Amino acid sequence: MKLPRITILATLLLTAPAAAQLQITPPATTPSPPAEKQKAKPPAPAKKKEAAPAPKPSASPKPALPATVIPAPPTDNSNVDLVYGAYQRGQYKTAFELATARAQAGDPKAMTMLGELYSNAMGIRRDYAKALEWYKRAADAGDREAMFALAMLRISGRGGPVDKGEAVKLMASAAKLGEPKAAYNLALLYLDGQTLPQDVKRSAELLRQAADAGLPEAQYALATFYKEGTGVPKDPERAVRLLQAASLTDNVDAEVEYAIALFNGTGTPKNQPAAVALLRKASRQGSAIAQNRLAWVLINGMGTSVDKVEGFKWHLVAKTAGKGDPELDKQLSDLPAEDRAKAEAAARKWLGTK
């Protein structure tokens, strides 16, 4: 039995606070410690919605990642960026004080840091007007992250009136300078066709740029383009490779789609045990779609041993999120009372309602 494919509406999410978009990096002259693996939110994927008319793909692009968490640098390293180190350790007041001095001396990265701190009330009272001022000064000095953060303020109307035209120009400039989150969000604007004329080929180009830079949301979205042939030739194998890459970063949507591809052998050799393992992982991360499909494979013993109590637990959990299944409801009613009670108790425990 094949697992059904997921149809998810491509959703623009461009009004999140700048902190959800901006990745601060040290100045180019300062050595940077290695980044820790980025944890996916989840979802914040966008909430799953009904399928949209073509040519929108069955993707759920999300906003760019939050700032990457980097371990605190050793204090005896004279080359360490003290502003950046204080920010990463959560010492926002210290970061603010140090960044202010450096910004006044003309450091664009310090200006961007001040924009971040003001925008997100880190060590200082939130002030979008001041955040906008510092982001603009840094953007004028050529900082690509400031350009992107300023674009997000402009498109959301924080710190001043909404100005989508300026936001698009800033995103385009940041994307040209290699900012993957700017390329990703610009791709969504070309896909949406409201702020910009719809151009799925240009959207695909920008998604490819962001995906090649390692942005998992872009990898997942571009995978759906290749799966559906939207703006690019249909290529199931390439779609699966992108899904695999995104799933390695704990992108939940990618995990579910990759699991379904593995289970059905679509664009990749069939591997049902690996698919079930991914469904388990995504289910524990809160994906109702994964929970629903995991229920099916456990109850029916597809790619794994039969475990009806565990399977119906996930069915009940998914049902609370609106992913019910009438056929599984019928099978649950036929389950022996003792096993049904165990499944219900397990679901309540998982949901924290016991």
UniProtKB/TrEMBL annotation:
Q: Which InterPro entries does the record match to this protein?
A: Sel1-like, Sel1_AlgK, TPR-like_helical_dom_sf
| Bias kind Pro residues: ranges | 54-64
Protein name from the UniProt record: Sel1 repeat family protein
Q: Which UniProt keywords apply?
A: Signal
Superkingdom of the source? Bacteria
Report if keyword Ubl conjugation is assigned.
Answer: no
**UniProt-listed SUPFAM superfamilies:** HCP-like (SSF81901)
Segments for region (Disordered): 24-73
- Which source organism does the UniProt entry give? Bradyrhizobium niftali
User: Signal sequence: where?
Assistant: 1-20
